Amino acid sequence: MKNGAKNKHIGSDFDDFLRAEGMLEEIEAAALKKIVAWQLEEALRKTSVTKTEMAKRMKTSRAAVDRLLDATNPSVTLITLQKAARALGRKLKIELVAA
To answer: Does the reported pTM lie above 0.85?
Structure first.
């Protein structure tokens, strides 16, 4: 850095950096979607339910199930998540925690 300029991020954590860049919520949402997609994939594997069978149980299309399982696709509703959980014999749990 020239002329004694200080890096405003020194001493902060990565969340502070993402917040300052206006990217924190987007990154957290993407991470949550990846976790949910992974959990659904694991439940599919453990229950030996195919994507086609899951779609039937959810009363939706196979393409909709593929979108749900796509970790990079953030478009998912609570109703869809609840249907997916129920189709796999699971229960959806969402909670708010202190920031």
So the answer is: no
